[in-house]
UniProtKB/TrEMBL annotation:
Residue ranges of domain Glutaredoxin in the record: 4-65
Record lineage: Bacteria, Bacillati, Bacillota, Erysipelotrichia, Erysipelotrichales
Pfam families attached to this UniProt entry: Glutaredoxin (PF00462)
Protein name: Glutaredoxin
Domain of life (superkingdom): Bacteria
Amino acid sequence: MKKITYFHLNSCPYCKNANKAIEELRAENPEYNNIEIDMIEENEHPEIIEKYDYHAVPCMWIGDQKIYEAHLFEKYDECKEQVRKVFEAAK
């Protein structure tokens, strides 16, 4: 399984939705618990984020491929589906 790199902000409501989706998806699909997620808070690690090309959080990568980047007004169901796709790509 591949590691997910997850860029987020602690105060971001879209990131809170992504965190909720991760928890729900792991409860629904126990195999997702075996997938490592490297959670990187933007404000704490500017030296890491400058190496990645994205504009919004939450943003999830596998290796050097961006799999999911949130957008304004994104609904929870859309977020959850995108996070599911990230987990599936990591399998």
